[in-house]
Design brief:
Elements (H helix, E strand, L loop, with lengths): L1 E3 L2 E4 L2 E2 H8 L3 E5 H13 L6 E6 L6 H9 L3 E4 L2 H10 L6 E3 L6 H10 L4 E2 L2 H11 L5 E6 L21 E2 L3 H11 L3 E5 L10 H14 L7 E3 L17 H19 L4 E4 L3 H4 L3 E12 L4 E5 L8 H5 L5 E3 L7 E7 L7 E9 L6 E4 L20 E6 L2 E6 L4 H5 L10
Parallel strand pairs: 4-20, 5-6, 5-13, 6-7, 8-9, 9-10, 9-11, 11-12, 12-13, 15-17
Antiparallel strand pairs: 1-2, 2-3, 4-14, 14-15, 14-19, 16-19, 17-18, 20-21
The structure holds pyridoxal-5'-phosphate (PLP).
Length: 412
């Protein structure tokens, strides 16, 4: 988003004009930003075979999936429902990777039935997979390397106390099961968390997996998951994708030589591809002065954007309607009936009732984590593609709130 002649624009599109046409609260996504990020990632790996599988859970609107499909990449899904959405978007089953955690075996069987490659992340299901499919279906194994990656404890998945993956210390047991059942392991997977601050975690993870990989005879790929850190505010540490790409490329070359064949390297970026492409537009309902704070109460809240309350995440906020107003300090809060802070101690150009604020980095884990808590409607979503805007999801109505409820007639 840029400020041009006192108007905020995405490409050639006047953002406040979108508000007039679609109302608020409104999620707006910019495909040009997604494309820049995708190309950045692709160009960081020269001379090795990489595959990118967009993590659907970050933002699962079918149009976003179709955009990525058009770019020639695959997807990673964590539930059978995400798998159905990806199939509906047009992905071939073989371009989808199913990486579930703590699902019933029936969900894994369903994915196999659909022809979708599966990642197993516990010993019990590895055994069940072997008993059920033996060597008829190739399998990927998610390894927990016991590395501490991930910005917030809730999104750290590779440490010893984490529920994810099969411990690197259990590889001997894994090999016993593979041998006994003649399982065909075609991939290994590692994902240590989201918002990884230290890029060395990726390299350390690679070292551990490359070491373990030597004991698997016929690997076709190694999936390094994701966790690439994006900037949420000025001065934030970010993953230097180009530099990481260079170092990973060297490590992959060395591994391939030792392994005796070339394996594909996969990544599953979610946040990296879509976070910065999203803008969440909300309206100031109230400006309220208390003895300690000036609150701006907006027509949204943690029901639409839970990351600040869930992870203590920082999302930059801009007053779009008053770009030259005097700057003042505010707490921007939502309308949910509990503490519902979207941004504390924010210096914003003076906010007046009716002003439109943009909450930035709203592409990843924002709409996809939205709910109807407090019986509020989920927002509409708009996609900007090649300087045209498209409504890609309507705002909820009372019908969605009541859908599925069965009104009993026993309390008359
Ligand atoms: C298995 C797996 N792959 C990929 C991702 C995407 O991570 P990110 O959004 O940090 O890129 C996640 C998210 O936690 C994940 O659990």
């Amino acid at each position: 988003m840029i400020l041009k002649n006192d108007k905020y624009q995405i490409g050639e599109i006047d953002v406040l004009n979108l508000v007039e046409r679609y109302g608020t609260p409104l999620y707006v996504y910019d495909t040009s930003k997604m494309l820049v990020k995708l190309q950045l990632m692709q160009s960081a790996y020269q001379g090795i075979a990489i595959k990118i599988k967009y993590a659907v859970k970050a933002l699962s609107n079918i149009n976003v999936l179709q955009f990525f499909k058009q770019q020639g990449i695959g997807v990673d899904v964590v539930s059978i429902q995400e798998a159905y959405i990806a199939l509906k978007a047009g992905f071939a089953a073989t371009d989808i990777m199913f990486t579930p955690n703590c699902v019933g075996f029936d969900e894994i069987e369903k994915a196999v039935e659909l022809g979708i490659p599966v990642n197993v992340d516990n010993i019990a299901q590895l055994e069940e997979f072997g008993n059920t499919f033996a060597n008829t279906i190739p399998l990927c194994i998610r390894v927990n390397p016991h590395l501490n990656g991930g910005g917030n404890s809730k999104i750290q998945t590779g440490h010893i106390d984490s529920k994810f993956g099969i411990s690197i210390l259990q590889m001997r047991h894994v090999h016993r099961i593979i041998k006994a059942n003649n399982i065909n392991v075609h991939g290994l997977h590692v994902h240590t968390g989201s918002d990884i601050l230290d890029a060395n975690v990726f390299l350390k993870g690679a070292e551990i997996i490359f070491d373990a990989a030597q004991d698997f005879e016929d690997l076709h790929f190694i999936d390094f998951g994701s966790g690439f850190k994006v900037p949420y505010k000025k001065g934030d540490i970010v993953t230097d994708i180009a530099q990481l790409g260079k170092k990973m490329t060297e490590a992959v070359h060395a591994f391939n030589q030792q392994y005796g064949k070339e394996v594909e390297i996969w990544f599953e970026p979610g946040k990296f591809l879509v976070s910065e492409a999203g803008h969440f537009l909300v309206k100031a309902n109230i400006v309220k002065q208390t003895p300690a704070t000036t609150f701006v109460g907006v027509n949204s809240g943690l029901n639409h954007l839970i990351r600040p309350m869930m992870y203590g995440a920082y999302h930059h906020i801009i007053n779009l309607s008053n770009p030259n107003g005097q700057q003042r300090i505010y707490d921007v809060v939502g309308y949910i009936c509990e503490t519902d802070t979207l941004g504390a101690n924010r210096k914003l150009h003076e906010v007046r009732v009716g002003d439109i604020l943009s909450i930035e980095n709203a592409g990843a884990y924002c709409y996809s984590m939205a709910s109807t808590y407090n019986s509020r409607y989920r927002p509409a979503e708009v996609l900007i593609h090649q300087d045209k805007d498209y409504l890609i999801r309507e705002r909820d109505t009372m019908d969605e709130l009541l859908k599925g409820q069965i009104s009993l007639s026993i309390f008359d």
